Fold this sequence. Notes:
The protein is α+β, with helices and mostly antiparallel strands. Among the domains are: 69-123; 159-233, no CATH class. The protein has 4 helices and 4 strands, in the order ααβαβββα. It has helices at residues 8-139, 147-159, 182-192, 222-233; strands spanning 171-176, 196-201, 208-213, 216-221. Helix 1 packs antiparallel against helix 2. The N and C termini lie far apart (171 Å).
Amino acid sequence: MDQLGINGGFLIVQLINFVIVFFILRAIWPTLLKFLDDRSARIAKSLEDARVAEQARANAVNDAQQVMNEKRAEGAKLVEDARGQAEAQGKEVLDQARQEAEQIRTKARQDAEEERNQLLSNVRDQVVQLAMAASERLIGQSIALDPARSQQILNDFFTKSNTNLHNLGNEVEVTTALPLNDHEKSALTQQLGAQSVNFRVDPSILGGVIARAGDTVIDGSVRAGLNDLGSRLR
């Protein structure tokens, strides 16, 4: 072996070392393999846990975004509903204010008309007396009518119509120059034969009666007579 350049003692020592290392490795190999397998399992589990955690984080982000979107939508709906309610309430308040204003105007017109009619009622007798005095002065005391007859003629001037007013309809609106008393209203209602009669006062018609039932108008006023007379004289 020396001729081959091999040291026999050194070879034997190396063989012994190899055998020792072999047995040592053989003894610890299962433990080493188990350690490596455990370490690989731990690494794999860590990677899986990291993947699961990342997935959970992504899911949480998505869920949070969805919740935020839903809350935004709910908030927008609440704002829109509140705006709609505010507009509806504002419109209701405006409508109510308009109705109240119209009621106030209507009441004011009615009060003014009632006050005017009351004033006209108060001066009616004075108008009749002045007319009677003027007629007596015009035709003379000797041929003047008696007071009762003169009173009746003047009353008829303000309450009578030369046109037939019967059967105009069930609902009739009557306009006179001066307010009528209850007796005159009852007589005129009987003449009309209507179920409902609404009496109005318009001093501009001067005298006589204007009756209106729907589209039908019977104008028996002094104003209409004077206008007709004026047109005939032209």
